[in-house]
Amino acid sequence: MVDVRSAHEGQRVERRREANTMALYIAICLLAALTALPDSKDLHAHGLGIVWGITLGLAVAHWFAFWMATRMVSAGEFDRESLGLAAAQLTGAAAVAVLASIPLLVLPDSIELNATELWLSAFVAVVGYLSMRWGGTSRVKATAYAGAVLLAAVVIVELKNWLAGY
Known about the structure:
By secondary structure, the protein is an all-alpha fold. 84% of the residues lie in helices and 0% in strands.
């Protein structure tokens, strides 16, 4: 007999993983897009549109791919559990877009895009730190891991922009 509590806990863990995966993916893609932008005063007026446009575009593309892949591996069905995973993914994406919007809304135009890049970088590092701390690792090791995660994200951002020709 299947333990209902274990099954529910497994689903919760899976939804958290999907939300965190999407949040990190969106954060890294936003970082890449923001760092590739030319330095222009005209862009500051469109900061929210850039952040939300990129986030929504990536989230919709990801949702579509997830929907198709799920149907392919489950005899054409998209069940309640799959819907919960998709909702978690969209929640993770929206959370990062909201987070990235904060500096755009409260800081002066002259620093808002750079501050958003720093804010997103801090988010990536904090996720790295917390993932280790929640696993029982010491603060020192978790901090070192967060630094390594941030470095990896920067390398990914730079590689992405280099491959795109920016």
